[in-house]
Amino acid sequence: MNSPDQPLPTFDEVLLCTPQTTAEQVGLFLRRCLIPCSRGEKIYTMLFADELSYDVSCRAEELFQHLQRYNSSYRLIILCNCEREHSYIPSAFSHYKVHMIPQRPQAEIQQYLQHHYQVAQPSSSAASVFKDNMSVGIVSSKRAGVGK
């Protein structure tokens, strides 16, 4: 948010982890992050890494330990649910742990995201479905099974 015109991360910079995420997917992601090349100053992010299966987590840690020897200037952020801090990945990477508290008010964060996700010319875009011509939206319900 310090550079409002800087683009948001691209698909190759973010891995959204689930219990079904495979070791191959994590391996490809870590290789993009840790193998030095001329891709610029990307910041790679693993979201919900605490949800990876035990086997995938073990293999991910092994690969990380192996690859990090070749690149000391990598930029990797691993985000986990604080309620699952004793799962494998948060435990294995605990010596890198940094507790984060948002540094900006929620309204400022929302404005920043709106700037990046608003469709300029909504002519016949699917973005016209979402409020204020946003290209993304969140649909939620407090009750399960209401078709959202």
Strand numbers in spatial order across the main sheet: 1-2-3
Please report the number of helical segments.
4
Low-confidence stretches: none
Shape: globular
SSE order, one letter for each helix or strand? EHEHEHH
The major sheet is characterized as: 3 strands, parallel
Oligomeric form: single chain
Class per helix and strand makeup:
alpha/beta
Fraction in helix: 25-40%
Distance between the termini: 31 Å
Computed Rg: 18 Å
Q: Strand portion, in percent?
A: 5-15%
GO biological process, one term: negative regulation of non-canonical Wnt signaling pathway
Protein name: RN213 ligase
GO cellular component, one term: nucleolus
GO molecular function: ATP hydrolysis activity; ligase activity; ubiquitin-protein transferase activity
List the helices and strands and how they pair.
Layout: E1 14-16, H1 23-34, E2 44-47, H2 54-67, E3 76-79, H3 88-92, H4 106-117
Helix pairs in contact: 1-2
InterPro entries: RNF213
Protein name: RN213 ligase
Keywords: Ligase
Structure description:
InterPro entries: RNF213. This is RN213 ligase. The protein has helices spanning 23-34, 54-67, 88-92, 106-117; strands spanning 14-16, 44-47, 76-79. α1 (23-34) links the parallel β1 (14-16) and β2. α1 (23-34) packs parallel to α2 (54-67). It is built from four helices and three strands. Helix content is 29%, strand content 7%. With 148 residues, the chain is of the alpha/beta class.
List keywords for this structure.
148 residues; alpha/beta; 4 helices
Condensed summary:
This protein is α/β, with parallel strands linked by helices.
